[in-house]
Amino acid sequence: MKLVVMIPAYNEEESIGKVIREIPREIDGIEDIEVVVINDGSTDNTEKVAIESGAHHVITHKRNLGLARAFKTGLDYALKLGADVIVNIDADGQYNAKEIPKLISPILEGEADIVIGDRQIDKLDHMPKAKKIGNKIATWVTAKLAGIDVRDAQSGFRAFSRKAAMMMNVLGDYTYVQETIIQAANKGLKIEWIPIKFRKREGKSRLIPNIWSYAKRAGMTILRTYRDYHPLSVFLGIGGILLLVGLIFALRVLIHYIQTGMVTPYLPSAVLAVMLIVVGSITIVFGLVADMLKMQRLMLEEVLYRLKEMEEAETRSKSRQK
Ligand SMILES: Nc1nc2c(ncn2[C@@H]2O[C@H](COP(=O)(O)OP(=O)(O)OP(=O)(O)O)[C@@H](O)[C@H]2O)c(=O)[nH]1
Ligand SMILES: [Mg+2]
Q: Which residue ranges does the record assign to the Glycosyltransferase 2-like domain (predicted)?
């Protein structure tokens, strides 16, 4: 069994060394452990410190592409290395890598495809109140959209089985955390939650300049992901509401017409009714087309999965021949 620990990092020279040093070098059931740092266009010494601290691979984006893209780079790279289990941990030192054996245990036991560390934010003294509320709302929305039990959607300490990692197609460019949960739920993967420690952040957050910009950008990714998996209900919902409101206006005009034989005083309502009915109907038709596109997407994802499997089998047979 091979474990790859991946660490996306953006200007984390202060903390990345400790994170790497905390990674256990021997774990029961694992023969090989490799550490991959994805240095996302850092302008400090993150790369140098990572190498000096014992990272086996440092992949550098020439410029800052964002956490989600760095996560995708790391996942692809870990799969190319032939990982059986992949752990993602942040570079800011808030998670304790010594908890990796506990995190990967359900995957090694074959009980889960993905394991996510639950920071139990209710119990955290060092997290500001506003951030706690934001975290709770985002977790609740993710749970509703994914339709599964979600304890802490924003946690960056996670383990993936090879199969789960191959199934992830991260499309957002800001954060991957909620998107991967919604995808996993839709693909029928089993997610398990394990309570973990979460330390106070030393230094400023790289990802969250303020809570509103985070909410806006993460919210967009969450909604997009949901739309991609449930286009029919999204467009049918929006179109249905427009159509219903349009019909109510139309009814008002019709009743007046039956009573008086005139439409004129209600002309604005009549125009609005027609507009709403037309836009609502188009939205519903659009939903049907989007549903067909979803089928294409699912098929493409299946093809992508098989391609990754083939690539992986090739890597394994090459490394056996060496
Ligand atoms: N690759 C990459 N990583 C980033 C970027 N921004 C943040 N990160 C990394 O993502 C991890 C989480 O970022 P943080 O800034 O700690 O955000 P957070 O943990 O959600 O929020 P805090 O509670 O403020 O720490 C850290 O390892 C960062 O180095 C980025 O633009 N690119
Ligand atoms: Mg952090």
A: 5-165
* Per-domain residue ranges of the chain: 2-226, 231-321
Q: Report d(CA 29, CA 109) in Å as an integer.
A: 10
CA atoms of 178 and 145, how far apart (whole Å): 10
Per-residue confidence at 253, pLDDT binned at 50, 70, 90? very high
* Ligand 1 centroid to residue 58 C-alpha, Å: 17
In one letter, which amino acid is 1?
Answer: M
CATH of domain 2-226: 3.90.550.10
**Alpha-carbon gap, residue 184 to 105, rounded angstroms:** 19
C-beta of residue 12 within 8 angstroms of C-beta of residue 92: yes
Residue nearest to atom 12 of ligand 1 (CA): 90
**Which residue shows structure tokens 């409101």?**
245
Higher pLDDT among residues 136 and 202, named by residue: 136
Paired strand residues for 4 = 34, 86
pLDDT tens across 142-199, in order? 999 999 999 999 999 999 999 999 999 999 889 999 999 999 999 999 999 999 999 9
> What contacts 4, CB < 8 A, 6 or more positions away?
33, 34, 35, 36, 78, 81, 83, 85, 86, 87
